[in-house]
Amino acid sequence: MSSETPVRIVHIDPDGFEDVAIERSTLEAELGSIAFETVDVGGADVAEAVDAADILLTHYASVPASAMDATGCSVVTCYATGVDNVDVEAATERGIAVTNVPKYCDEEVGEHIVTLALALLRGLPQYQTHTAEGGWDWRAADSVRTAETQTFGFFAFGRKARVAAARAKAFGFDVVAHDPYLSAEEIREAGADPVSFDDLVDESDVLSLNAPLTPETEQRFDASVFDRMRPGSILINTARGKLVDEDALLDALDNGPLRGAGLDVLASEPPEQTNPLLRHPETIVTPHAAWYSPGAVERVRRRGSKIAAAAYRGEAVDGVVNPDALHVE
């Protein structure tokens, strides 16, 4: 890459990190001469906030087709695993590579899933409220259960779910999983008993959602699904909030059959403070933080920057979610 023509790089939501030193130094080492800019687009349209860019870096900010056309970018990099904030189809049509960062937080998310499940099984929200109000009675939380009597189910069984499954097994859970993109043998080898979607819903005492957001999975968990779940069951969602019909979830918590929900993601983020799930006595809500550890922050930034540079050079590296875009003329 010629050092005489700087590669234009724009980070469109930099406030998620303390600075952009890792991105700047990594991309400079990978690409040579760069012109690095940070633009906090907030709620604005990227097309209005950014004049031109070769590479757009984003964490949560949306990148629609209009932003691609306005900036003339050739790479859009998401500092995440999911890329539902980017119009991938439009990018592919335009020959724009969209990249994510795989494998940077599998341990963190897997442990978060099991932590939420155990906290809800042991009645920690009820005990916390009870003691904060001056109580001191072990009966404040009803239906407390132990892992060895429970079945832990996974909707999609990728790397993060497999970490959680291993932790769950160590606590004594039976583990089942449904993933239409894996064979039964692959699921068994990864540590779970394969089941149909219907059996997953019917058999799980704890059901963890680990699927990406697609037209097929959006609001897949609605009233018709919740009505079939086991009495006293628990839902865990660390994937994407829009997998769940939140009104139906609220009804299932209020009227059964669910007794708890551990939610790291919501349909709208940050949520309106009027969202009743935030203060429901049977929920634990964390602020899309399952991925977080200091190590994960460094990994996502450094790896994400290296993947962005490789995609800019036209390399089909792990992390390019639309490799066909690299061949569009």
Short key terms for the protein model shown above:
alpha/beta, 34% helix, elongated, 329 residues, 5-stranded parallel sheet, 7-stranded parallel sheet, 16% strand
Provide an overview of this structure.
The protein is an alpha/beta fold and 329 residues long. The protein contains 12 helices and 12 strands. It has helices spanning 21-31, 46-49, 65-71, 88-93, 106-121, 124-132, 159-171, 184-189, 197-203, 223-226, 246-255, 294-312, and strands at 7-11, 34-38, 55-58, 75-78, 97-99, 151-155, 174-178, 193-194, 206-209, 233-237, 258-263, 283-285. It has a 7-stranded parallel β-sheet, sandwiched between helices. Strand 4 (75-78), helix 4 and strand 5 form a beta-alpha-beta unit. Helix 5 (106-121) packs across helix 7. The protein is elongated, with a radius of gyration of 22 Å. The model has no long low-confidence stretch (mean pLDDT 94). GO terms for molecular function: oxidoreductase activity. Belongs to the D-isomer specific 2-hydroxyacid dehydrogenase family. Keywords: NAD, Oxidoreductase.
